[in-house]
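Input (structure):
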């Protein structure tokens, strides 16, 4: 099999120039979207950023509907409203910039993945290009799925639990807008990236580094590792948030086992010797 065309046509400096333009185009798209979202900052905050702060949010209303259907009143959260405060002089302006940047990065993710694919595409063989195209399309879908799970499930439940939790009625929660935005950004991007787990494992399986049997054998270690990762990426130290984050990631690990189709004899023999 011959080398990819790029190795015959492009020099190191030409690759470096292509990388520079990839970065510039990506930054350009993100910057344009940042200004667009900043121009619609009132809509972004009133319709997207702040709604999880009160019991009228979609997630809480859905829980109340489920509680009626299942005859489980405790499932419906009581009416609540979490208040935010600003504690720095430029805090609210910086918050508008931060929220616009988060929205710009989330919306531009498919384009950013496309730029990565376009940069590495010339160095791949024809059959590898086909696989990479499928992987990047799936990556976009899984990133948005993770972001949606975070926004509509994990983040609202976290805010509901921590925002209303009190050690005493004498101690009032005063949550800063900066803390709120940090939690939102960390959870959305962390879950979006962690939802790429099936893609990573599938790619490792296709190139012969991971087998289905190995994944099944390492289930208990994977669960512990996922708990550790969840503890690192969550913006708080409470076990509730950690478990809420860890559960969907572990489910993705099980999905990764299902999509792996190739078992590697070498890995399997090693596992049998260890047993």
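Output (sequence):
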């Amino acid at each position: 099999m011959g080398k990819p065309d790029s190795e015959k046509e492009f020099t190191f400096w030409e690759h470096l120039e292509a990388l520079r333009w990839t970065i510039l185009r990506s930054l350009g798209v993100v910057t344009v979207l940042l200004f667009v979202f900043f121009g619609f900052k009132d809509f972004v905050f009133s319709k997207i950023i702040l709604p999880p702060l009160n019991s009228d949010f979609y997630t809480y209303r859905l829980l109340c509907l489920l509680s009626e259907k299942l005859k489980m009143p405790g499932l419906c959260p009581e009416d609540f409203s979490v208040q935010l405060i600003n504690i720095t002089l430029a805090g609210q302006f910086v918050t508008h910039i931060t929220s616009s940047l988060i929205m710009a990065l989330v919306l531009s993710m498919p384009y950013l993945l496309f730029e990565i694919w376009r940069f590495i595409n010339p160095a791949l063989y024809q059959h590898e290009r086909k696989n990479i195209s499928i992987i990047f399309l799936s990556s976009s879908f899984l990133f948005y799925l993770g972001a949606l799970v975070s926004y509509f499930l994990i983040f609202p439940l976290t805010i509901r639990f921590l925002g209303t939790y009190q050690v005493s009625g004498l101690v009032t929660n005063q949550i800063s807008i900066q803390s709120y935005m940090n939690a939102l950004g960390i959870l959305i991007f962390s879950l979006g990236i962690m939802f790429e787990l099936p893609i990573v494992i599938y790619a490792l399986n296709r190139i012969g580094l991971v087998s289905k049997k190995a994944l099944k054998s390492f289930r208990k270690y994977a669960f512990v590792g996922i708990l550790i990762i969840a503890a690192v990426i969550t913006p708080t130290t409470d076990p509730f948030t950690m478990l809420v984050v860890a559960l969907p990631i572990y489910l993705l690990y099980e999905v990764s086992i299902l999509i792996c189709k190739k078992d590697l004899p070498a890995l399997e023999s090693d596992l049998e010797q260890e047993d």
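Notes: Confidence is low (pLDDT under 50) at residues 266-275. The two ends are 39 Å apart (CA to CA).
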